[in-house]
């Protein structure tokens, strides 16, 4: 039987990505506009489709699938890598505290940016550990 603490840790981490990814896929809303400048910058060095909404939805789908897989212990290293690859641009696009118009917004975005960095750190541990 799998370690119940590992299962709980995967469930607490994976379900968050599964839920938030599903929401981004289903209703991308303001995420599309928030991602616009980051996607434009990436297009300067890498070929990406021009449809920002499609990219936001695809990113959400990656998070939903990889988060579900992580929760279930299916290919945890690959799931963790997929989530890291998805979360880095999400963090840069969605929590660009350096562009915030005022101190209150900068503080809020800094907090969210650091939270995402902690989440990435947890995923790095999943990738390095890789146990079910």
From TrEMBL:
The keyword Transmembrane helix applies. Pfam families: DoxX. Keywords: Membrane, Transmembrane, Transmembrane helix. One of its GO terms (cellular component) is membrane. It is found in: Membrane. It is a multi-pass membrane protein. InterPro entries: DoxX (IPR032808). It comes from the Bacteria. This is DoxX family protein. It comes from Luteipulveratus halotolerans.
């Amino acid at each position: 039987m799998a370690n119940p603490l590992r299962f709980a840790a995967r469930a607490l981490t994976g379900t968050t990505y599964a839920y938030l990814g599903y929401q981004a896929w289903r209703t991308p809303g303001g995420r599309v506009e928030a991602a616009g400048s980051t996607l434009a910058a990436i297009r300067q060095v890498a070929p990406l489709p021009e449809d920002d909404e499609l990219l936001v939805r695809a990113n959400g789908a990656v998070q939903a699938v990889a988060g579900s897989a992580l929760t279930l212990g299916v290919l945890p290293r690959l799931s963790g890598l997929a989530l890291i690859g998805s979360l880095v641009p999400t963090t840069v696009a969605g929590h660009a505290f350096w562009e915030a118009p005022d101190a209150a917004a900068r503080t809020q975005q800094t907090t969210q940016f650091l939270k995402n960095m902690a989440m990435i750190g947890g995923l790095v541990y999943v990738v390095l550990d890789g146990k079910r």
